[in-house]
Amino acid sequence: MFFLLTSFTVVAIPYVIERFGLRVRFGLFALLFWLFVFQFVLIFSIDALLQNFATSMPDWLESMLTTLGGFAFVTIGITPIITLVLAAAYLLFALGQWLFDKDEKDLPTPQTHFTVAIDGPAASGKGTLARRIAEAYGFHHLDTGLTYRAVAKALMDQNMPLDDEFLAEKAARSVDLTKLDRAVLSAHAVGEAASKVAVMPAVRRALVAMQHSFAERSPGAVLDGRDIGTVVCPDAPVKLYITASPEARARRRYDEIRSNGGGANYEAILEDLTRRDARDMGRTDSPLKPAADAHLLDTTEMDIETAFLSAKTLIDQALAKNTH
Ligand code: C5P
Asked: Recorded E.C. number(s) (predicted)?
């Protein structure tokens, strides 16, 4: 009965807290659980040993086993108590967080920044357009794809699996937006790995929080990615969805690699882009799709300057509204 109750405390309480929206370190609770099981097995084994072999064992061994068993017996009660104390601390923390968030939400948001949200599939031209806009308006720019790439690269560098959500979340929390090295992160293998870690909700939560604060920089910020208009900045005054046919995008990637002196195979690139699109559009958490109020720009037949002029018209209109 005691064993059942403790198992319930150690496993069910953290689960319930997690349901309340607070992330719990299950590893810690699991450790307590196994400690408890270990103590139980220890007491049982020592008791069995003493019952059967006490007469044939030297006195010092008998007294040592008795002390050890007594110690385990006394401390076994402590494990569920530590679990309960930890659970209570987590609950208090969750309550504080909830109250704090509530206060934050009640405050009016000062409009000292302007956000341009740009989404679209790989090689659609969104990155070039984002940089062009940021330069023209003196806004900060964040290529959010680099943040997912940085997570993938960190895992790859340490030979860690790409499907362990706990490790990936840890790597995501360590991403430093000021240290995103495009030259290192742009490798093809890193992009492939990035789209795998990008399906994990815990990774997205950590990176989206960072991207969201970046979007609030003054005087404005341009963010490009897959979920900027839908998840990261749903209130952005300008949202663009850049697209182009898969063939045009594969051709661009191919030309880019060739012009940098690399070897490339057009068919392989096309296949790769199509696979990446399917993964980005088909995932459950924040799939790539245009926001309902996004302006669509198809760059299949359009050069960057024409795309920039269309975007500029929309941004100027929104800026004019913002100042009146
Ligand atoms: O844009 P880039 O190719 O650098 O992105 C790499 C991968 O990161 C994408 O294939 C996508 O899976 C993921 N990503 C994302 N959400 C973003 C930006 C990128 O899921 N906002």
From this structure: 2.7.4.25
Instruction: Give the integer Cα–Cα distance in Å for 20 and 12.
Output: 13
Q: Calculate the average pLDDT of the chain.
A: 88
| Ligand 1 atom closest to Cα of residue 223 | 21
Nearest to 244 by CA among 178, 179, 303: 303
Ligand 1 environment, Cβ below 6 A: 122, 144-145, 148-149, 191, 194-195, 198, 225-227, 276, 280
CATH architecture of 114-322: 3-Layer(aba) Sandwich (3.40)
Amino acid letter for position 192? E
Question: Annotation-wise, does 128 bind a ligand?
Answer: yes
- pLDDT value of position 315: 97
pLDDT digits (tens, 9 = 90+) for 244-280: 999 999 999 999 889 988 888 999 999 999 999 999 9
Domain ranges (residues) in the chain: 2-106, 114-322
